[in-house]
Inverse folding.
């Protein structure tokens, strides 16, 4: 899990530094890192307890949408 976290974080950092991607609505690399920890954790949990993974993921997504005031149309 740590290997994938490092790969995804490094990839995003490179894309940010080379202006191939940008963050909006206050998102930062630190938020992405938290997201990666949750994402890979939920993938692992999904193999053992899928329902719990769905519930926790839905809660985390709702939290992020509220924090970053994601517009819903």
């Amino acid at each position: 899990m740590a290997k994938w976290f490092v790969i995804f974080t490094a990839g995003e950092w490179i894309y940010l530094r080379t202006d191939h991607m940008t963050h909006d609505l206050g998102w930062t690399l630190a938020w992405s890192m938290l997201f990666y920890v949750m994402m890979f954790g939920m993938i692992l949990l999904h193999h053992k307890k899928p329902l719990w993974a769905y519930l926790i993921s839905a809660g985390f997504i709702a939290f992020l949408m509220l924090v970053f005031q994601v517009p819903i149309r």
Remarks:
- Residues 2-67 form one domain.
- Helices lie at 2-17, 29-48, 50-67.
- The first helix runs from residue 2 to 17.
